[in-house]
TrEMBL record:
Belongs to the WD repeat HIR1 family. This is Protein HIRA. Residues 768-966 form the Protein HIRA-like C-terminal domain. It comes from the Eukaryota. Residues 492-529 have a biased composition (Polar residues). GO terms for molecular function: nucleosome binding. Residues 1-362 form the CAF1B/HIR1 beta-propeller domain. CDD domains: WD40. PROSITE patterns: WD_REPEATS_2, WD_REPEATS_REGION. It comes from Cyprinodon variegatus.
Length: 1021
């Protein structure tokens, strides 16, 4: 063992509370106290490892210094992929840092010396939720979550894929929480606090699994930190400060039953930090000796307030080494290198020590393949097992095409991994992408310049208000949580490819004041004025809730509205919100006071966490900014009739809700002579209907621009009140008269439809030509939708009809919802009409159905209470740039159900084989649902996820069946019923996309070669 204390690693004599080595081993970070703030510093590892590099003046020792924290920094932790650095401090904040591009070396701000930042790291997000000092932060396996703990007795779990979203807040400790550690298998997170307890939490439901108190009953809150650690095999959890017979120990907690029968003893004062070596070791064999079977063991370092460090092997009863008086003050943190042979230790005295071990001292480390085998034998499956190339590193590649795919994957992984710190100053700058999200940098700059405010002074001179333009971070430092290639395209090309697929909202145009909308509680909420700006900022930082927002400056506005989660497009006023755009909404109530309603709306907007509502707010504001202020473009939602001047803000024209009711007529009296019982009374379903209004208007299309205005009771002729329908298309107006009041209106770029209170439905073209004779409805309309050349009507009698206006044909005729609305408390909460004319109905019980035109029956496409959704584990199969799902009608009806942060995929108590079967069933359900909705993009999206899951699980039988179906017969046959395409997608082109996924696993190289050759043969033919 070699020991080194580099004197140049210092915070100017101030305490260093945390140290962490970068996963690639080229740098390490320290956090502690600065002059008048917290300080985070990044150091070069090369001068620590090699003496010649330390003496070389051309090799920088300090790489970067960050002083953004307002108070002392207590913890720094690198993400597992090395792209991010998280820091927590006494300023109650957690900051996430990312290396910036396009910036050269700079001098440390405020430094009297000529300290230069060789690397530039910027704070990409600040996480604010704690009300006290942040004591520890920890990244979960694969960087899915970031956990932070504080002296406010809480632990906050952050969604690391979508900062600053908070997944949950764990409450249960009654004292200061001072340490966190994740289970390497991914099932638990453990925390230790001053309340004399160590708690283990499940990641499936974020509930407490175990509360261990006995070993800590005699402990006092004398330590600054309590940094516990989990062994790499997941079998043991070792705590910080514990007591045994009034002596300080590090308690060993066994995973099996959380037993506390063993501990590490010998330190004279409280243990502050425990850190396991990331490697698992086995005894080193002497030269020439035959290998002997031996149990693998782990290595653990323990630091204490007694200024001593001990290193233990689980195969020995005594410590491997103990170093006394290593520092002048308490040891605060320990970090191992990823190779397992180096260790950095920091102390409150402001110094750092490096320990270098040899293989003779620790043993031979197990390979990743052997480590994963241990996890599989113990747990069935480990979340760490995602790279099949690691397990098959010795497999011979037989096909050059397979070799090409493997090399492409490695190059892609290296590009996504970010540039590692180099030892010398000659390190090259990272490559800069000339295109961001489908736009060139020049286009982005031009779009920003278009937003500048320019005025004229009295003498005619121009005056331009300065516009702050943040630096465009286009370096190759984007996170890559998965090694798979993106499936869906991005940028303006994508917005053109994904044409509007649905018009969602059962209550098409509820009148509302400017910018109000229903939130998840059913109250009117007003979107914040800066929603559009926030959406653009989120887009720049990569926090995209939908892939259609990847290019805000080029996206077509109407298409953006047509494919939103909660689009209220082409809808009519007066429809009560019992049929709402979001499943499960309560009916809207008319506010008593507009001012108080606005206050309540703002409060609810701030606390609402529903992703669909947030999506609607983003879409609304992005489109709203492109129109005049007096026109509300909420997906075609009703707006006030346009008048000169600014619109009033106190018009809260919310309609009184009419809840769904079931009317049961009284039973007929029985005849005395009959002895048989009468049949049960029939249940009559009633859905809410819109309330007539004097006038309303809506925009039904942007490309071309089509406005629709309705004015009821414009004149009285022969005792009947006439209503006027006016339409403006690209500046050309037309109008027509209707014999009764208009209740609902909807439209698309192809057709317009209006429903009157005499139960007549009229359909016009956008140029004013009547396309169909008036259709007599059995009951008044409850919801009206138009999409492309299709018209859908949901009546108050709970019947649904869909017409193809172009072919003048009924696709669905008076289909009853009786089979769906079977429960007394079940009501319609959502309705959609896709671009292909498929009707979708969402119910308050969380189930969504679409009517299959080919099967002529209702089919279940989503169930928010389905256990398959909660237990399906397909996160490792998601594309890297779209970890939350695709965009389309299926994504709309499922809502947040597929949120990766809520999936119970972290090795729950379900056996692996059962979980595998449930995931397989879920993915096959998704394929069938996308097929029923005729959503080609979503079908392709889930097909590739399905194929990737089969590859990861090694299911060759199903993979071969899938490839056989996509390939079809090689030779033409009259008896073959195989169709070459599905939903407009060529099956063999889909097979070409599936083959690279199969090529990721060397086990299937012969399957890959077989179908690759057949595709090539067909191409030549």
């Amino acid at each position: 063992m070699k020991l080194l204390k580099p004197s140049w690693v210092s915070h100017n004599g101030k305490p260093i509370f945390s140290v962490d080595i970068h996963p690639d081993g080229t740098k390490f970070a320290t956090g502690g106290q600065g002059e008048d703030s917290g300080k985070v510093m990044i150091w070069n590892m090369a001068p620590v490892l090699r003496e010649e590099d330390e003496k070389n003046e051309n090799i920088p020792k300090m790489l970067c210094q960050m002083d953004n924290h307002l108070a002392c920094v207590n913890c720094v932790r690198w993400s597992n992929n090395g792209l991010y650095l998280a820091s927590g401090g006494d300023d109650k904040l957690v900051m996430v840092w990312k290396r910036a591009a396009l910036i050269g070396p700079s001098t440390v701000f405020g430094s009297s010396s000529k300290l230069a930042n060789v690397e530039q790291w910027r704070c990409v997000t600040i996480l604010r939720n704690h009300t006290g000092d942040v004591m520890d932060v920890a990244w979960s396996p694969h960087d899915v979550w970031l956990a932070s703990c504080s002296v406010d007795n809480t632990i906050v779990i952050w969604n690391a894929r979508k900062f600053p979203e908070m997944v949950t807040c764990l409450r249960g400790h009654t004292g200061l929480v001072k340490g966190l550690t994740w289970d390497p298998v991914g099932k638990y997170i453990a925390s230790q606090a001053d309340d004399h307890s160590l708690k283990v939490w499940r990641t499936v439901d974020w509930q407490m699994e175990a509360n261990i108190t006995k070993p800590f009953s005699e402990c006092g809150g004398t330590t600054h930190v309590l940094r516990l650690s989990w062994s790499p095999d997941g079998q043991y959890l070792v705590s910080a400060h514990a007591m045994n017979n009034s002596g300080p120990t590090a308690q060993i907690v066994e995973r099996d039953g959380w037993k506390t029968n063993m501990d590490f003893v010998g330190h004279r004062k409280a243990v502050t930090v425990v850190k396991f070596n990331p490697k698992i070791f086995k005894k080193k064999q002497k030269n020439g000796s035959s290998p002997k079977p031996s149990c693998p063991y782990c290595c653990c370092a323990v630091g204490s307030k007694d200024r001593s460090l001990s290193v233990w092997l689980t195969s020995l009863k005594r410590p491997l080494v103990v170093i006394h008086d290593l520092f002048d003050k308490s040891i605060m943190d320990i970090s191992w290198t990823l190779t397992g042979l180096g260790m950095l230790v920091c102390s409150m005295d402001g110094t750092v020590a490096y320990l270098d071990f040899s293989l003779d001292e620790l043993g031979d480390p197990l390979s990743e393949e052997e480590k994963n085998t241990i996890h599989q034998n113990i747990y069935g499956k480990s979340l760490a097992i995602t790279n099949t190339e690691v397990q098959l590193s010795t497999t011979i590649i037989e096909n050059p095409e397979m070799l090409k795919y493997q090399q492409e994957r490695q190059n892609s992984a290296q590009n996504n991994g970010g540039a590692a710190a180099t030892a010398g100053p000659e390190s090259t700058a990272p490559k800069v992408n000339s295109v961001m999200n489908g736009e060139s940098l020049e286009d982005i700059r031009k779009n920003l310049l278009k937003k500048q405010v320019e005025t004229r002074t009295a003498d005619g001179r121009r005056r331009i208000t300065p516009l702050c333009i943040a630096q465009l971070d286009t370096g190759d430092f984007s996170p890559a949580l998965f090694n798979s290639a993106p499936i869906l395209p991005s940028g303006s090309s994508m917005s053109n490819q994904l044409a509007p697929q649905l018009n969602s909202d059962s209550s098409p145009g509820q009148p509302s004041s400017l910018g109000t909308r229903p939130n998840q509680d059913g109250a009117l909420t007003s979107p914040p004025a800066n929603s559009a700006a926030k959406a653009l900022e989120d887009e720049k930082d990569g926090l995209k809730s939908s892939l259609l927002l990847t290019s805000a400056s080029k996206i077509e506005p109407m298409k953006a509205l047509d494919s939103r989660f909660t689009e209220r497009s082409k809808a009519t006023p007066g429809i009560p919100s019992a049929i709402s755009s979001t499943a499960g909404l309560a009916p809207l109530e008319r506010p008593k006071d507009p001012v108080s309603a606005l206050k309540d709306a703002k409060a609810k907007e701030e606390t609402s966490s529903d992703s669909e509502d947030k999506m609607a707010a983003i879409n609304k504001n992005l489109s709203f900014a492109k129109r005049k202020p007096e026109t509300l473009l909420d997906g075609g939602e009703v707006v006030e009739k346009r008048k000169k001047g600014r619109p009033r803000k106190d018009k809260m024209a919310a309609t009184m809700a009419q809840p769904f009711t079931q009317i049961t007529p009284p039973p007929a009296e029985r005849e005395p002579s009959r002895a048989v019982a009468p049949p049960p009374a029939a249940v009559v379903l009633r859905l809410p209907t819109p309330t007539p209004q004097k006038a309303f208007s809506l925009q039904v299309s942007m490309e071309p621009s089509v406005y629709l205005e309705v004015e009821n009771e414009v004149s009285v002729v022969a005792g009947s009140k006439l209503s006027q329908l006016r339409c403006s298309r690209d500046g050309r107006d037309w109008s027509t008269l209707l014999p009764s009041a208009v209740l609902a209106a909807a439209g698309s770029s192809d057709v317009l439809a209006v429903a009157c209170d005499d139960r007549m439905l009229s359909v016009f073209s956008c140029c004013g030509r009547r396309l169909l004779p008036a259709i007599q409805l059995a009951t008044p309309v409850s919801a009206l939708h138009c999409s492309a050349h299709f018209v859908m009507v949901l009546t108050a009698g709970a019947t649904l009809s869909v017409w193809d206006v172009q072919k003048q044909k009924a696709l669905v005729k008076n289909e009853s919802l009786q089979t769906l609305l079977s429960g007394a408390d079940t009501s319609v909460s959502q309705s959609l009409l896709t671009q292909q004319g498929v009707p979708v109905v969402g119910l308050s019980n969380g189930k969504s159905y679409c009517f299959s035109l080919s099967l002529e029956t209702w089919t279940l496409i989503a169930d928010k209470g389905d256990s398959l959704v909660q237990c399906a584990d397909f996160r490792s199969c998601l594309p890297s740039q779209d970890a939350t799902g695709s965009s389309g009608p299926l994504a709309v009806v499922q809502g947040r159900n597929l949120n990766a942060g809520r999936l119970a995929s972290r090795l729950s108590s379900t056996p692996h084989h059962l979980q595998q079967s449930m995931t397989l069933a879920f993915l096959e359900n998704q394929l069938a649902s996308a097929l029923a909705l005729q959503s080609s993009q979503e079908y392709r999206y889930w097909l590739l996820i399905y194929a990737r899951f089969l590859v990861i699980e090694g299911s060759e039988y199903r993979l071969r069946e899938l490839c056989k179906e996509l390939l079809g017969p090689v030779h033409k046959s009259a008896s073959s019923s195989w169709q070459p395409s599905t939903l407009g997608l060529h099956k063999r082109e889909l097979l070409r996309e599936v083959l690279p996924v199969i090529g990721e696993n060397l086990r299937f190289q012969r399957l890959f070669t077989e179908y690759q050759d057949q595709l090539e043969l067909l191409r030549i033919k």
